[in-house]
Amino acid sequence: MDLQDGRAPARVVIADCDPGRRLSLREIVLRFDPGAVIDEATSGQALCDILLRHRPTLAFVGLQLDDLSGPEAVAVARRAGAEPPCLVLVATRVLPHWQEIATSLGAYEVLKTPLDPSHIEQLLHADARRRAPTRALLACSTPAGRSAISRVVARSGFAIELDETDDGRHALKQLKLAAYDFAFIDVKLGGIDGLELACQIQPLGLPTRITLLTTSELEPVAQAGRYFGVDAVLRMPFYARDIDLALHNALGLRRPYLLNALTAPPAPSALLRIADLPNPRRKIA
User: Fold this and answer.
1) In angstroms, rounded to a whole number, what is the distance separating the alpha carbons of residues 222 and 43?
2) For residue range 74-113, what is the model confidence (pLDDT) as tens digits?
3) Fold for the domain defined by 11-130
4) Residue 207's beta-bridge partner residues?
5) Confidence of residue 257 (pLDDT cuts 50, 70, 90)
6) CB atoms within 10 A of CB 247
7) What's 133-282's CATH class?
8) Residue 109: its H or E element
9) Sheet strand arrangement including 11-15
10) Identical fold at 11-130 and 133-282?
């Protein structure tokens, strides 16, 4: 184990015809994780072989390779049973059809050239976080809400063990007993409502990041929750992209923005972070 937190170093494949881009990516990966094991490929066949033989955790794949295109090579490897847990496509331009390609391949992000080292480092951090075991609690009063969130969590690529409940008292007991990284808590829970639950666990000093779920307006709930250590508020009903955004926020990660930007026209977010609220102490009488 080379990483300080005990995780195994990343296994990375870089597939691109451009030697300069391969070198840049290699250098950035090794700065982030000096113990990373890196394979390189310039052809689709070589990429398929690496995906099948070495099962990398992270793949940077360019559009143009010597024979097959990068996406075609990934699709061939997927049909053979090898799918990189974290796929990052690399393109000189991000066109509308990239969204369809990226979605069909389960890509995590699309990188646009020239490469931005800080963006790549954020992706490497996200990949390391995806591989880290994570415990989470979902306390939601409706089966539909629990089902929607658990589906997004299951296909997120993160190693999340999700416990579920529809009862506030049970949720309080679970939070006291288990070391949860984050929790999604419905304001309208039975037994103890979500705000009361947040109030009761605040003195415990738990590291759990709390996201409240509500059908009401976001800001009043967020203003109340800020005094109980709540991290964010998510409005129900929600789209999958809203849950995905809330999940990344709960894990302290930036949502991949290029894919997100192409997924749908700009729309108001159903997530309000407490940190984005105006500070009432700064108001001048």
Assistant:
1) 51
2) 999 999 999 888 999 998 877 777 777 888 888 888 888 9
3) Rossmann fold (3.40.50)
4) none
5) low
6) 23
7) alpha beta
8) strand 109-112
9) 37-41, 11-15, 58-62, 86-91, 109-112
10) yes
